[in-house]
Amino acid sequence: MSKIVLGVAGGIAAFKAAELLRLFTEAGHEVRVVPTEASLQFVGAATWEALSGQPVHTGVFADVPQVPHVRLGQEADLVVVAPATADLLARAAHGLAGDLLTSTLLTARCPVVLAPAMHTEMWEHPATQANVETLRSRGTVVIEPAVGRLTGADSGKGRLPDPTAIHAVCLQVLDGRPQDLTGRHVVVSAGGTREYLDPVRFLGNRSSGRMGQALAEAAVARGARVTLVAANVSLPAPAGADVVRVVTTEELRTAMHEHAVDADAVVMAAAPADFRPASRAGAKIKKVPGQGPAPIELVENPDVLAELVAGRTGKRPVIVGFAAETGDENASVMEHAAAKLARKGCDLLVVNDVSGDKVFGHDDTEAVVLGADGTQVPVPHGPKAGLAHAVWDAVAHRME
Ligand code: CTP
Asked: From the CA of 273, how far away is ligand 1's center (Å)?
């Protein structure tokens, strides 16, 4: 059980913090809610007291004998602020301590997670971006806001991510993951591409996107700015990742090249189709009674991973590929993998042994993280989050 301080700043998304609070309390954590005075315009103190079973104050002059403005931060295992407004980010970045929440942020020696929510213009303003950069440079985890409907009819970047997604980031931070990707931009691909034969039929594969999702969540929890290029992934967007949705290998290729430009690391966890139909019919292909199926002519898709390796210049991101291998009469799984690593020219290859339906669609996995320098790190069977962190361990090591 951990002691968590849940800060709530004055934004319309304050009500979503109630669900986050529930997720923490149901997992057995002790939560003290510290709202700002402004946030009480949106959700009253009675709600927080009832849901947390703890007293709720906004200022530093309540309950003075307990010195809560010092004690709360000192004793916490995690401080999370959701939503964090532009004003709260500014005050936190400049070390102001005019209320209980900002005092707690100054006295906290535990990890701090901020989940901003505001209008797009406020988020994109150079002042806010500079504050976010300052906070991140000090090791604070600032989750990227989600894109979607905002307070009014407008939509854009600035939504508070789903509470379950914020909760997932907090759990990883509580797990003591290092903040070694702070200030880094990482690009991860996930899922399986679809290559259309006609408007309704496609050639696809069984990749669910769970591995890419785990990689994105783990990188957010380690402080990175994350772009997730998701090919036909039906999972909810991970908190704090910018999600770019694609369908075909060609779209995935374009998105990867665009976002890899300023990346420090690129991880190709997606399964792009190696081949696509030579042409895509504009109308649904009809079945003609008595005639057998028409043959499908395929052409080769570009190898995105190999292109990214060939095209890297300047910043030279660490590039990671995935390999789904089976051993055969010619070579073992690891021999095939070593040959693939050399062929693709990437820095790391995550090798999955897929004989016997071991990987696709499951929450658990096992793999070997193979380095171009010959290192082999076996990751035993377990949740994909564990493998994700082993990959980032290897990536962070190579970034240094
Ligand atoms: N990859 C890619 N572009 C493709 C195909 C694959 O970037 N058109 C990437 C995948 O994202 C993965 C790695 O390359 O990181 C997998 O390599 P690939 O050669 O496709 O191997 P497998 O599909 O595992 O198997 P095979 O050797 O049979 O091709």
From this structure: 8
Q: Does the annotation mark 352 as catalytic?
A: no
Residue 70, C-beta contacts closer than 8 angstroms, at least 6 positions apart:
103, 107
For residue 348, give the 3-state DSSP assignment: strand
What CA–CA distance (Å, rounded) separates 95 from 40?
Answer: 22
For residue 18, how many other CB atoms are within 10 A of its CB? Answer: 18
Q: What per-residue confidence (pLDDT) applies to 361?
A: 61
DSSP class of residue 192 equals B
**Do 144 and 289 reside in the same domain of the chain?**
no
Annotate 152-216 with DSSP letters as a single string: SS-EEEEEPPPHHHHHHHHHHHHTT---TTTT-EEEEEEEB--EESSSS-EE-----SHHHHHHH
Q: Is residue 124 part of a domain?
A: yes
Q: Could you tell me what percent of the chain has a pLDDT over 90?
A: 80
Cα–ligand 1 centroid distance for 300 (angstroms): 12
Q: How many domains does the chain have?
A: 2
Q: What is the token pair recorded at 273? A: 């189709």
Ligand 1 mutation target, pool 194, 207, 250, 322, most atoms within 8 A of CB? 322
Residues 70 and 218 in one domain: no
Q: Which two tokens stand for residue 334?
A: 């690891």
Q: What is the pLDDT of residues 152-193, one digit of tens each?
A: 788 889 999 999 989 999 998 998 888 889 889 999 999 999
Rounded Cα gap, residues 360 and 207, in angstroms: 6
Tokens 């604070």 correspond to 140
What domain range is 318 assigned to? 185-399
Please state, as a whole number, how many other Cβ atoms lie within 10 Å of the Cβ of residue 232. 21
Task: Give pLDDT, residue 292.
Answer: 86
Sign for the CA dihedral angle at 39, 168, 180, 111 comes to positive
User: Residue 274 Cα, ligand 1 centroid: separation in angstroms?
Assistant: 7
Specify the CATH number for the domain of residue 150: 3.40.50.1950
> 261-265: which pairs have CB atoms within 8 A and are 24 or more residues apart?
262/185, 262/315, 263/185, 263/186, 263/187, 263/227, 263/315, 263/317, 264/184, 264/185, 264/186, 264/315, 264/317, 264/318, 264/399, 265/184, 265/186, 265/187, 265/317, 265/318, 265/319, 265/320, 265/395, 265/399
Q: What is the CA radius of gyration of the chain?
A: 24
In the structure, which protein residues have their CB atom closer than 6 angstroms to any atom of ligand 1?
Answer: 249, 268, 270, 272, 274, 301, 303-305, 321-324
